[in-house]
Amino acid sequence: MNSTENRFRPGLKMFSVAALGLALTLAGCSSDEPANAGPGSAALDIGVDSTAAAALPAKFKESGVINVAADIPNPPMEMLDENDNPTGLDYDLSQAMGAKLGVTFNFQQQAFDASIPSLQAGKNDIIFAGMNDTAERQKVLNFVDYFHAGFMILVNAGNPDGIKSLVDLCGKPVAVQKATIQGEYLNAYASKCKDAGKNPIELVQLPSELDAQTAVRSGKAVADVVDAAVASYAAATAGDGKIFELVKDPEFPSGYNPVYTGIGLLKDNVELTEALRLALQSLVADGTYAKLMEKYDLGDFAVTEAGVNNGGK
Questions:
Q1: Distance separating alpha carbons of residues 207 and 203, to the nearest angstrom
Q2: Cβ atoms of residues 46 and 36 within 8 Å
Q3: Is residue 253 very low, low, confident or very high in pLDDT (cuts 50, 70, 90)?
Q4: CA distance 213 to 223
């Protein structure tokens, strides 16, 4: 597999993708209505779920489009294949949900820290960008949760700084993407650093996850603290697995501070929230969701049912 820099190009601005054009390399799912082949991979037949489609607000039935704020690249959640077609768990899952709803999910490039303002400005309808469902964000957003995992520490191959746990990051520069829960968590870790007789972690907050990984590679940070799925993918694929290494803390085998990840939308979009939940639940029930999680080796982080606002509970 190609390295991260070769696979992903941050200049992408927008994807307009038909809901029935599925970029899924799956097989064996039943269907009532056949789907057409989408860009980048073989088609998966998924029928419209009448209950989910009926719950969709009229404006989306009429327009046939749901505009999506997506932070690309953010592998393995959102990325580009060798032909510059969108792929990744979030993209593939959105296409399957679009098929259930009978609408198009229109992916638009949006910086992660500007994704909520893009909803408030009416530019986008939902956020599908690996966003963690937290109590703080629930003040503004509803979340349809589809993922549950903690975060992990990513370091250069060989672990030159000997990082074994979070306390080893105290007093050192650590890269995180802006506006993420990881940054908040590491700031709050200052008291534990003090207890260990060390200085607080020096946060290096950057616009994108790939920027954070670049900071580690260039020596500007000793580690990148990021969602477990992203860390695992980077360690396995960047430079054919020779660039990064995953720090496995035996005390936290599933990652630190496990949280739900969800599709975010403004709290007054109650009907759309329910329609998305029903579409996701339909994918859970017919096995498509499990196949997508396994496609990206993320089965350990799967949810057993589509929930709303599980974060912070």
A1: 13
A2: no
A3: confident
A4: 8
pLDDT tens readout for residues 187-222: 999 999 999 999 999 999 999 999 999 999 999 999
SS3 state of residue 133? strand
CA atoms within 13 A on the CB side of 75: 26
Closest to 288 (Cα-Cα) out of 49, 129, 105, 97: 97
The radius of gyration computed from the CA coordinates of the chain, to the nearest angstrom, equals 19
Task: Write out the two tokens for 151.
Answer: 């975060």
Q: Are 308 and 145 in contact (CB under 8 A)?
A: yes
Q: What is the pTM of this model?
A: 0.74
* Element holding 282 (H helix, E strand): helix 270-286
Place of tokens 């303002």: 117
Q: Which residues pair with 37 in a beta bridge?
A: 22
Longest dimension (CA), the chain: 63
pLDDT digits (tens, 9 = 90+) for 214-228: 999 999 999 999 999
Contacts of 278 (CB under 8 A, 6+ apart): 49, 51, 52, 55, 100, 306
**Token match 């957003």: residue?**
141
Buried b or exposed e, range 152-169, using 16+ CB within 10 angstroms: bbbbbeebeeebeebebb
Residues 29 and 99 sit within 8 Å (Cβ to Cβ): no
Amino acid at 74: N
Tokens 């909803």 locate to: 119
